[in-house]
Amino acid sequence: xxEQLLRRFVKDYQNTGDPAVRExxxxxxxxVGILLNLLLSGGKFLAxxxxxxxxxxxxxxxxxxxxxxxxxxxxxxxxxxxxxxREHPFGHGRIEYLAGLLVSLLxxxxxxxxxxxxIEKILHPQPVEFSPLSAAILAASVAVKLWMSRFNRALSRRxxxxxxxxxxxxxxxxxxxxxxxxxxxAAGQLLHxxxxxxxxxxxxxxxxxxxxxxxxxxxxxxxGKPPDPELVKAIEQTVLAHPQVVGMxxxxxxxxxxxxxxxxxxxxxxxxxxxxxxxxxxxxxxxELMDKFHILTSIHMDPIVTNDQQVNDRRTMVERIVxxxxxxxxxxxxxxxxxxxxxxxxxxxxxxHGCPLxxxxxxxxxxxxxxxxxxxxxxxxxxxxxxxx
Length: 389
Fold this sequence. Notes:
The chain is of the alpha/beta class.
């Protein structure tokens, strides 16, 4: 059914890298969410009025807030789809993350209010009349919410949307909460126990947990999180498939919203290569990465020595030493300058964030190890910290 809806309402739906297509995905998700949540909310208000159940009424308010969340998602995708302008040269894509965060906050607010109402019901219980009509409405709600979760999860995976993932998580938690409510009210009716308030608390816990998880998923890209390791691996394979490039380092990927990423890195080329040919290859790689990954790329070209055996031997020695100090350490920009009394080994060390050694300690340790192997060598070290792991 999801595929049919996409074919009918999302033009060019397979071109998910296009911001305009993403906006159409968001519009479809928002409209479906608004219509279904309003329908569910109306049904549960009816069931709550008939039974006098605070937990069913709370669940109805939850669906009403979900409809409001769908409006936020709809507006968020609309704003995120705006083109770049003078004030926002990188576009408006991060509005999608803000929309997801706002949805998460709405979920948390509903959970808090539901918890307060349920505690009041526990302190002052009232009889609940559970009818077959109410049971049918709640059962239908569970089925609809499970479908909505699958629908939004499928859309989020197609366009890698944290806002839609938050909506999918919310729908799944709603389905579990309503199922718990249905079972609990039926059990309370059979056993003549005042479970309504306790069930409301259980629903509130489900909602709060879902809201917190959704908030984390949207806060992480706003603060800046490392790129997907599979993406990094694919980028490296694409770049190093060109025999003129002998290495790459200092990869940084900037996320300005889904489908609006930029990256930069250093590409190592032999120092004796034809400079014009090497520049042409670098330009070609930038275009290739844009076409393949939809990421605007800027590459800095690093010339390195590749045909000097003495330099290669010293580089190999330094690589072995840093690997022995920590297996995730790497070196780049290796140069060697000779003198009458000693040789300078100049290089950068790329250290992961989990490295137990501080910058100064790392420099001192490497320098001592190099001196121990060759007393004529002095290390000039710059410590870099990786932005990708």
